[in-house]
Amino acid sequence: MDRSYRIAPAERGVVCDAVVDREDNAALGDTLAWRREQIGREGIEDVAAVLELRALMSLDDLLAGVRDTGPDATVMLKRDQASLLCQIAGAYVTDRDGEDYQPPEERNRIARLRALAGPLMDLCCEFAAAEDEARGQLLTARA
Q1: Which residues of the chain have pLDDT under 70?
Q2: Which residues have a Cβ under 8 Å from the Cβ of 27 and sit 6 or more positions away?
Q3: Which of 10, 73, 112, 135 could form a disulfide with 66 if both were Cys (CB 3.0 to 4.6 A apart)?
Q4: How many C-beta atoms lie closer than 10 Å to residue 21's C-beta?
Q5: HSE-up of 46 (CA within 13 Å, CB side)?
């Protein structure tokens, strides 16, 4: 997953432009749908569940918006979105990867998400460094 970081428009933080291939995008979309389904089964009875559901839907819309643009598409992620993808992909693999029979498409999805685990964790860590660097540059420019 190729990544580059930049200051967001109007200096509202750092964003990451991540190149995600179509199959990875689809696998991530499936994990978001899986989490939405879990929330639905648990019931939407508090504000936290509503906010998480909204964040999931927003992120799914973002991924779906570029899914069919080509084999590799650039997705602009904020730090909280990257963190959410990382958490949910890991939870999906943990929950779904067992000894029971899984259809080949599920095995492929799990393998793809397992391969994405490192790049997603790197993405989250790099965000912190990019924000520190941007903050330093902003302070220097204002001085």
Answers
A1: 11, 138-143
A2: 109, 112, 113, 116
A3: 73
A4: 14
A5: 3
Q: Quick one: pLDDT at residue 139?
A: 57
Structure tokens at 19: 């190149």
Task: Take residue 101 and report the two structure tokens written for it.
Answer: 């029979």
Residue with tokens 């899984």: 102
**Nearest-angstrom CA–CA distance, 25 and 14:** 22
- Which residues, including other chains, have CB under 8 Å from residue 62's CB and lie 6 or more apart? 75, 76, 77, 81
Kindly provide the residue ranges of all beta strands, DSSP E only, lying in the chain, ordered along the sequence.
Answer: 3-7, 14-21, 72-77
What pLDDT, on a 0 to 100 scale, did the predictor assign at position 95?
A: 94
Both tokens of residue 129?
């460094």
